[in-house]
């Protein structure tokens, strides 16, 4: 693994955390959206992260090849909808109430989304710091010969 791989790893981490921040923002924006049917109601979405290179997990008792097995980064494998139940409220005067007087709210937990957003923001910041530290290290290495 070369020092240049650090840029790829931190870049993939920043990209993954950016997608996580966007899904969290989408969830928060739709937290109070209302619908009259279950099928049309917004459902919270979550990104699923995956190690880019998973061969190391599939092998057993085989020595780790640092050049090929470690340090490829992370990617977003999928964005899935949460399967927690939707919130159904009895509000017969609401304009979107169905014939029984119920409206459906998304399964978005605002507190959980805020905590997730803070975690994603912190993870993004750490990846930026790793990137900048590697850049500084490479610059200092280049000036050693002067």
From TrEMBL:
Subcellular location, principal: other
Keyword Cytoplasm belongs to the record: no
GO CC term, one of those recorded: bacterial-type flagellum basal body, rod
Domain Flagellar basal-body/hook protein C-terminal: residue ranges: 100-144
Every Flagellar basal body rod protein N-terminal domain range: 8-31
InterPro entries with a match to the protein in the record: Flag_bb_rod_N (IPR001444), Flg_bb/hook_C_dom (IPR010930), FlgC (IPR006299)
Cellular location(s): Bacterial flagellum basal body
Keyword list, A-Z: Bacterial flagellum, Cell projection, Cilium, Flagellum
Domain of life, per lineage: Bacteria
GO biological process: bacterial-type flagellum-dependent swarming motility
Pfam families according to UniProt: Flg_bb_rod (PF00460), Flg_bbr_C (PF06429)
Binding partners and assembly: The basal body constitutes a major portion of the flagellar organelle and consists of four rings (L,P,S, and M) mounted on a central rod. The rod consists of about 26 subunits of FlgG in the distal portion, and FlgB, FlgC and FlgF are thought to build up the proximal portion of the rod with about 6 subunits each.
Record family assignment: Belongs to the flagella basal body rod proteins family.
Protein name: Flagellar basal-body rod protein FlgC
Biological source species: Reinekea thalattae
């Amino acid at each position: 693994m070369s020092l240049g791989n650090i840029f790829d790893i931190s870049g993939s981490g920043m990209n993954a955390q950016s997608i996580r921040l966007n899904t969290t923002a989408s969830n928060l924006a739709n937290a109070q959206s209302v619908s009259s049917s279950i099928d049309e109601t917004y459902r919270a979405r979550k990104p699923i992260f995956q190690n880019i290179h998973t061969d190391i997990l599939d092998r057993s008792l085989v020595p780790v090849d640092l050049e090929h097995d470690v340090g490829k980064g992370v990617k977003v494998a999928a964005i899935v909808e949460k399967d927690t139940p939707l919130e159904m409220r009895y509000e017969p005067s609401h304009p979107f109430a169905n014939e029984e007087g119920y409206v459906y709210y998304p399964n978005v937990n605002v507190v959980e989304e805020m905590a997730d957003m803070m975690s994603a923001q912190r993870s993004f910041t750490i990846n930026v710091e790793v990137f900048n530290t590697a850049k500084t290290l490479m610059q200092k290495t280049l000036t050693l010969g002067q």
